[in-house]
């Protein structure tokens, strides 16, 4: 065995990346592989809620206690990813008083700061709350950007020597003498940082230990070693509104139910969610009625949602897990707790542990526990430091300076850039070149886009999750081509064109669930801009050769028209 | 007391303007009302007739020849190919667009670096045609994010254009904000306003030409993003051509599109000359009808409902983009007269899964008889004195076909002609 154990982590969601950072900070040699982008799976498809624990305070107090603890840690180490909006559990007349009291008690028992306020007080905080909301419990819920958080963890892991490989799918586990000794990985074709190995090639990554942190996909990895990991993927829909109808997280104070939360998130509000078991984490129905249910149920809390504009909907799958002897019928009954499955103890297969279940809010704690577990295997006694060391961007985030003046940025663009970048703002924004806005909806400037390209290469979806570019009202209609142009120079025209198409398609996919009213008009405009103005639907660069000689070359034009020629001083209509 | 006219046109885009112009030229007393800014500001300012067949064949060289093969419900088939030609003659008469010397489409470079087939192009775009084999230098501006000249040049090469093309990015002279509006550049060039270059004041046109001269090689034509002046664009271009010693052209851009706005100005001017009256900025919110005839429409102005009465009405309010067609989670509607719009019952039938797929929403619109009168669900004429023109019409996908401007001009022409004939 080598001096420094080499750990291969599978999965680039919050759990995997949390583990990679933790192990790297403890001095271990880490390689993380992810089949898509960072956050490609469950992490990138959550509602962005930083749990106070209030949600679990009645039914799952262990989870609730962990949540409030990690809520405090993340506010500390990831300040530039967190907006402490506060949260409300609101009670409608038809909701049970008994449960309301249980919730209040539960919060207190779990150490979650909670107070009761009247309906009037709640409406003073959130004017769009329904008039018949009777009262509410305040809790320290917040909003968190999962993309920024995972990217910051990845950056930190890399700073501590880890290798992070995205767009690299595990095709097999290498097993020798009953022990997992590595992975077979297929790197997607592409360019830039999407591929570190051979373009489109395969690679054998040998490791001293493998951690399977693939969440809803854990069973797939298990299958490669003939071990059974019975994850129960459960889908949930989230619908994104084009503005923040509320500035506080609004939960419905009910035992359980679909469509019971609104999370203000950056410039949007996210409605969630449903909970329905599915067979396959990648292939499950996404249906219109689920979107309707979000709107029709949540308008009972915030009536204006009925007429509001949605910009897209997306579905995520929870990697729910329960020990084989429990057997819940309803996915909402399955615990949100996480489980560490040591395959040596469990299946007599050495060299690998899987981590399943759990919640985004407690990703760091899960990382700590599994890192302790892995270190114990090698007799390493290294302290976990992830709860104390701020993530890149969150160091010294006390000064929100007046970047508007300093960098010639207009408000609120400067403020938003600085909020996103945190302590990295100086490094990124201090450029002597012009820094125009690339994405107007989200106020993302060229410097930020270039910084993201430096980090993530030619993948515009990776640029998107780092900057929020293309995530606003127009869903990339105006900025996809600008982003592609930002790639050009560093990357060739065909790579920029491919990335452009890929982003446009990805943005279209989620918008399909919002195509009525304003967003259908927006989609029609985007379609017209790309097809009519740019002819991107019939781009001759993508198609067969064009017989240019068969078209008008301008010869003879202007001669018989009777209007003044170009060289004259301004034509008839617009004379100087 | 209502405001009276013989023909009332609702909508101030290409279709509404053409319709009002034609009706006025036929001698009718015409009034045009429009609400929001027309979608011309979103459009490139090119005037397409037909670039691709509904099956995606193309680029088409002769749009008139291809029109006969269009499906029967297509607006071109409704009005007939000869009428399309007539309507284009009217357009040519009142604008200084090029392309009227031939039936053949031109291929014009776009700001993203593709080329698109179009029937008419502004004089300012003429030197840029892709079938001209002279070499091209594209000039981009550092802060102008919609046109990246090196990227567009590389893209044009990938499209196989028959000339060498190179892109250079320069800084626009003077100390403009990084996010200066396009109109700010145009204004400076329009007035040849002073800009500071290394501490000395210079006219913006001269300073820009000097910068271009430092990066120009031997190219005979120089392409700029479409920011070369607004009111005096021909003079700006002429000045640059003289100082650079090469032909200068504009590459059409996305919104806000100066070529689109210039076209709008030209048509409003022609409408004014023809003696029509117009009022912009207020929506039509209601109407009265007596059985099969519309009697009065109401325009909301400062909270009051102002009645406007006419003998004949033209609906040219645009499609989904221009909000002449609206939708909610359940249905698709025409908001002014509640004309029938055929659409799938489930909103998931309104689009295709691919961003550039065959989208049903692209063809949403009213169906009409041969004289462009909207039809009810039972194919009956909805109102005897109402006609529809432009994007509010159904049965065609202007984006995929590149037929938006042509359909607007041709149907506007026919609606205006018929309305005037009925009103007299």
Tell me about this structure:
The complex is a heterodimer of chains A (576) and B (424). In chain A, helix 13 crosses helix 14 and helix 15 runs antiparallel to helix 16. In chain A, the strands form 5 sheets. In chain A, strands 5, 6, 7, 14, 15, 16, 17, 18 and 19 form a 9-stranded mixed beta sheet that branches. In chain A, strands 9-2-1-13-21-20 form a 6-stranded mixed beta sheet, sandwiched between helices. In chain A, strands 3-8-4 form a 3-stranded antiparallel beta sheet. Chain A is built from 17 helices and 23 strands. Chain A is an alpha+beta fold. Chain B has 11 helices and 19 strands. Chain B has helices spanning 14-25, 63-67, 75-79, 81-94, 149-158, 182-191, 204-215, 233-244, 258-273, 398-401, 404-423, and strands at residues 3-10, 30-34, 97-98, 106-109, 115-118, 121-122, 136-141, 165-170, 194-197, 200-203, 221-225, 247-251, 277-280, 284-290, 293-301, 304-315, 326-327, 332-333, 386-388. In chain B, the strands form 6 sheets. In chain B, strands 1, 2, 13, 14, 15, 16 and 19 form a 7-stranded mixed beta sheet that branches. In chain B, strands 8-7-11-12 form a 4-stranded parallel beta sheet.
Keywords summarizing the entry:
heterodimer; A: about 575 residues; alpha+beta; nine-stranded mixed sheet; about 30% helix; about 20% strand; B: about 425 residues; alpha/beta
């Amino acid at each position: 065995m080598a001096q420094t154990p080499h750990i291969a982590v599978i999965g680039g969601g919050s759990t995997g990346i949390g583990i990679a950072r933790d192990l790297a900070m403890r001095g271990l040699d880490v390689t993380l592989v992810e089949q898509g982008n960072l956050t490609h799976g469950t992490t990138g498809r959550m509602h962005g809620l930083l749990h106070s624990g209030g949600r679990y305070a009645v039914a799952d107090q262990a989870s609730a206690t962990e949540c409030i603890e990690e809520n405090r840690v993340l506010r500390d180490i990831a300040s530039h990813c967190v907006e402490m909006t506060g949260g409300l559990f609101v009670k409608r007349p038809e909701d049970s008083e008994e449960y309301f009291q249980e919730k209040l008690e539960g919060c207190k028992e779990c150490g979650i700061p909670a107070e009761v306020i009247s309906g009037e007080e709640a409406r003073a905080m959130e004017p769009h709350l329904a008039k018949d909301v009777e009262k509410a419990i305040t809790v320290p819920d917040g909003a968190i950007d999962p993309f920024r958080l995972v990217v910051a963890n990845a950056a930190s892991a890399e700073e501590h020597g880890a290798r992070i490989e995205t767009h690299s799918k595990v095709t097999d586990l290498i097993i020798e003498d009953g022990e997992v000794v590595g992975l077979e990985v297929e790197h997607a074709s592409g360019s830039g940082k999407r591929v570190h190995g051979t373009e489109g090639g395969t690679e054998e990554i040998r490791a001293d230990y493998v951690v399977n942190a693939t969440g809803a996909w854990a069973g797939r990895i298990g299958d490669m070693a003939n071990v059974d990991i019975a994850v129960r993927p459960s889908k949930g829909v989230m619908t994104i509104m084009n503005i923040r109808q509320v500035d506080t997280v609004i939960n419905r104070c009910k035992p359980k139910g679909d469509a019971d939360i609104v999370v203000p998130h950056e410039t949007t509000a996210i409605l969630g969610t449903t909970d329905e078991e599915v067979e396959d984490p990648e292939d499950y129905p996404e249906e219109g009625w689920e979107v309707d249910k979000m709107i029709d149920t949540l308008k009972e809390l915030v009536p204006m949602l009925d007429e509001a504009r949605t910009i897209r909907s997306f579905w995520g799958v929870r990697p729910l897990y329960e020990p084989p002897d429990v057997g819940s019928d309803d996915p909402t009954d399955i615990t949100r707790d996480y489980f560490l499955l040591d395959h040596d103890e469990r299946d007599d297969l050495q060299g690998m542990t899987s981590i399943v279940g759990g919640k985004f809010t407690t990703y760091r704690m899960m990382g700590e526990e599994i890192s302790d577990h892995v270190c114990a295997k090698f007799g390493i006694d290294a302290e976990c430091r992830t709860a104390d060391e701020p993530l890149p961007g969150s160091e010294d985030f006390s000064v929100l300076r007046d970047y508007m003046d300093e960098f010639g940025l207009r408000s609120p663009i400067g403020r938003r850039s600085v909020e996103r970048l945190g302590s990295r703002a100086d490094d990124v924004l201090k450029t002597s070149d012009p820094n125009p806005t690339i994405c107007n909806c989200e106020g993302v400037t060229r410097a930020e886009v270039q910084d993201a390209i430096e980090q993530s290469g030619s993948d515009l979806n990776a640029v998107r999750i780092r900057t929020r570019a293309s995530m606003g009202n127009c869903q990339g209609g105006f900025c996809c081509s600008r982003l592609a142009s930002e790639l050009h120079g560093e990357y060739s025209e065909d790579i920029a064109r491919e990335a452009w198409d890929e982003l446009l398609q990805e943005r279209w996919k989620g918008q399909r669930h919002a195509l009525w009213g304003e967003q259908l008009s927006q989609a029609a405009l985007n379609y017209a801009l790309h097809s009519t103005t740019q002819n991107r639907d019939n781009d001759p660069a993508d198609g067969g050769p064009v017989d240019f000689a068969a078209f008008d070359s301008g010869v003879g034009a202007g001669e018989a028209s009777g209007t003044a020629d170009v060289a004259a001083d301004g034509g008839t209509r617009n004379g100087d | 007391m209502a405001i009276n006219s013989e023909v009332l046109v609702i909508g101030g885009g290409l279709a509404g303007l053409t319709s009002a112009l034609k009706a006025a030229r036929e001698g009718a007393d015409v009034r045009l009302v429009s609400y929001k800014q027309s979608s011309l500001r979103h459009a490139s300012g090119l005037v397409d007739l037909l670039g691709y067949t509904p099956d995606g064949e193309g680029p088409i060289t002769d749009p008139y020849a291809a029109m006969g093969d269009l499906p029967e419900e297509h607006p071109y088939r409704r009005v007939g190919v000869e009428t399309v030609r007539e309507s284009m003659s009217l357009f040519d008469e009142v604008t200084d667009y090029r392309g009227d010397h031939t039936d053949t489409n031109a291929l014009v470079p776009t700001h993203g670096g593709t080329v698109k087939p179009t029937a008419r192009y502004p004089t300012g775009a003429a030197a840029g045609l892709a079938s001209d084999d002279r070499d091209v230098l594209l000039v981009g501006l550092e802060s102008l994010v919609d046109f990246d000249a090196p990227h567009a040049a590389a893209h044009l090469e990938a499209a196989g254009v028959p000339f060498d093309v190179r892109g250079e990015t320069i800084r626009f002279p003077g100390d403009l904000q990084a996010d200066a509006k396009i109109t700010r550049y145009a204004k400076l060039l329009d007035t040849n306003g002073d800009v500071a270059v290394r501490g000395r004041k210079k006219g913006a046109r001269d300073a820009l030409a000097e910068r271009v001269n430092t990066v120009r090689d031997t190219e005979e034509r120089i392409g700029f993003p479409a920011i070369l002046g607004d009111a005096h664009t021909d003079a700006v271009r002429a000045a640059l051509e003289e100082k650079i010693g090469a032909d200068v052209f504009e590459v059409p851009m996305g919104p806000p599109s100066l070529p689109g706005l210039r076209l709008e100005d030209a048509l409003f001017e022609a409408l004014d000359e023809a003696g029509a009256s117009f009022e912009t900025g207020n929506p039509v919110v209601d109407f009265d009808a007596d059985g099969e005839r519309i009697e009065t429409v109401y325009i909301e102005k400062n909270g009051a409902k102002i009645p406007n009465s006419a003998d004949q009405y033209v609906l040219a309010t645009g499609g989904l983009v221009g909000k002449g067609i609206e939708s909610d989670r359940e249905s698709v509607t025409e908001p002014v007269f509640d004309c029938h719009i055929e659409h799938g019952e489930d909103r998931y039938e309104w689009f295709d899964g691919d961003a550039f797929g065959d989208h049903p929403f692209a063809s949403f619109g009213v169906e009409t008889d041969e004289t462009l009168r909207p039809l009810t669900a039972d194919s009956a004429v909805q109102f005897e004195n109402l006609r529809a023109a432009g994007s509010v019409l159904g049965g065609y996908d202007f984006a995929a076909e590149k037929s938006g401007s042509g359909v607007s001009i041709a149907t506007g022409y026919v609606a205006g002609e018929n309305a005037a004939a009925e009103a007299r």
